């Protein structure tokens, strides 16, 4: 029976916090038995409005494997969270974090992905991180695969293009789910799984020299293997720790039509469908019919084992998480204009953009939340949202009102979506402490409430400094989103 509700604000128990990834913060890339990951063979970009994340070939891989330094590979050094996690978690606790999202580096547990026994030193590190979070009553939200996998699996199976990688991954997931049973309530399988359509950084498959259709074949086949592995991990979690929840994670890119011309409206509709394909499979448990035409037109044939569809259907995720940084516009015939270094599409004349060309659209977040809630009716979790900026020290301080303005506007739209009726679990902004940029491997692209004294060349004291936004976010959390000024 319908019962009218009057929701006016964030719910009690809303999970406020921040999000990171192992390959962008940990460092310690070659100690305590850790193996080399795919993230650590991607060179830093030379142009901050370009990308470096997919520029891996057999030739560049050989160079990376021979290079034993971190000079050209900043993700190898991160910000030394591996040795400074207690200091950093204490700062998160000072802000009042309710949740901290981080990832477990697969190569710390299984350096090549196929060892018979896990690396105890790697497991012990995450034991210690979880104990530190528990000390401050901060819930962990753990990503099982965040843009890194053993490079040995790329060399042996071409990453996720090889079906053998499923077994390797699920050996890893079974070990960590058992190890941290009762300590972790919320898990995610693959970070921004849809970006696997962009190639190597997410799939671990080298395909840069191939034609577009050949690339798409490899990428969607790799993604199918991830869908199966995600469902198996969900099955494992339900057997190991039935009280815990498994989520999927999407890079949500709301697409608007460039004009009201119906052909442009249809073009935008299909771009949104392609984005939702991934959550449709992981949350609804089946391949949607609307992808048949796209697969046929691009000669994509998904090779499935006999039980693949059954396992995907039987073990959908419990909640849906996503990142939100920007929106996009499209037309049937696109101009050669670019929104930014993550998406190719037309610029929206009504929006401002960051120094990296990412357009800023707070209302688009409300649109996204309503659209996703209507589509899935499963709890939603915003696990990335933030702005990269060129912060400048001013007498030892960072006055980042621009960051506060950006986050305030997005949080206001989150509240509006909750009033609209959306079931929103929490918000972990990206990233609460300055870290190595995913797309360009810069340090100078700063997101954090906490400044880290390190430059793009890795020089600096690594001292942590609270920015103005640190104190602002502390107030936001303390008032459960009521005080945003």
TrEMBL record:
InterPro entries: GH (IPR017853), GH_1_N_CS (IPR033132), Glyco_hydro_1 (IPR001360), Glyco_hydro_1_AS (IPR018120)
GO molecular function: hydrolase activity
Pfam family, one: Glyco_hydro_1
Active site, per annotation: 384
Keywords carried by this UniProt record: Glycosidase, Hydrolase
UniProt family annotation: Belongs to the glycosyl hydrolase 1 family.
Protein name (Swiss-Prot/TrEMBL): Glycoside hydrolase family 1 protein
Organism annotation: Periweissella beninensis
């Amino acid at each position: 029976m319908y019962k009218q509700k009057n929701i006016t604000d964030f719910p009690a128990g809303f999970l406020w916090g921040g999000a990171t990834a192992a390959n962008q913060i940990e460092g310690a890339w070659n100690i305590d038995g850790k193996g080399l990951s795919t993230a650590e063979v991607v060179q830093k970009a030379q142009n901050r409005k370009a990308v470096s994340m997919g520029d891996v070939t057999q030739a560049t891989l050989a160079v990376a494997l021979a290079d034993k330094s971190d000079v050209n590979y900043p993700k190898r050094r991160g910000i030394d969270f591996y040795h400074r996690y207690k200091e950093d978690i204490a700062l998160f606790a000072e802000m009042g974090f309710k949740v901290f999202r981080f990832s477990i580096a697969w190569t710390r547990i299984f350096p090549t992905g196929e060892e018979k026994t896990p690396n105890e030193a790697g497991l012990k590190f995450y034991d210690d991180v979880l104990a530190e979070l528990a000390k401050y009553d901060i819930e962990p939200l753990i990503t099982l695969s965040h843009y890194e996998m053993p490079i040995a699996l790329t060399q042996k199976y071409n990453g996720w293009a090889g079906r053998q990688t499923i077994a390797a991954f699920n050996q890893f997931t079974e070990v960590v789910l058992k190890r941290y049973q009762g300590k972790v309530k919320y898990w995610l399988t693959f970070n921004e799984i849809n970006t696997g359509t962009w190639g190597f950084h997410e799939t671990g498959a080298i395909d840069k020299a191939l034609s577009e259709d050949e690339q798409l074949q490899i990428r969607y086949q790799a993604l199918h293997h991830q869908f199966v592995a995600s469902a198996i991990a969900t099955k494992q979690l339900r057997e190991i720790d039935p009280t815990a929840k498994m989520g999927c994670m999407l890079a949500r890119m709301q697409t608007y039509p460039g004009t009201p011309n119906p052909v442009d409206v249809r073009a935008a509709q299909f771009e949104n469908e392609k984005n939702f394909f991934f959550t449709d499979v992981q949350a609804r448990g089946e391949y949607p019919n609307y992808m048949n035409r796209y697969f046929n037109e691009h000669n994509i044939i998904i090779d499935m084992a006999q039980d693949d569809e059954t396992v995907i259907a039987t073990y959908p995720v419990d909640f849906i998480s996503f990142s939100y940084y920007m929106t996009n516009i499209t037309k049937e015939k696109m101009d050669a204009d670019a929104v930014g270094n993550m998406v190719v599409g037309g610029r929206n004349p009504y929006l401002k953009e960051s120094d990296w060309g990412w357009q800023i659209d707070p209302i688009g977040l409300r649109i996204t939340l309503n659209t996703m809630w209507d589509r899935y009716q499963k709890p939603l979790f915003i696990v990335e949202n933030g702005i990269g900026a060129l912060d400048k020290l001013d007498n030892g301080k960072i006055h980042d009102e621009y960051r506060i303005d950006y986050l305030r506007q997005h949080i206001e739209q989150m509240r509006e979506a909750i009033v609209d009726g959306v079931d929103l679990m929490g918000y972990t902004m990206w990233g609460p402490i300055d870290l190595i940029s995913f797309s360009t491997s810069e340090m100078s692209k700063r997101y954090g409430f906490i400044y880290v004294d390190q430059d793009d060349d890795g020089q600096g004291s690594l001292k942590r400094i609270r920015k103005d936004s640190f104190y602002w976010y502390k107030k936001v959390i303390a008032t459960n989103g009521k005080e945003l000024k």
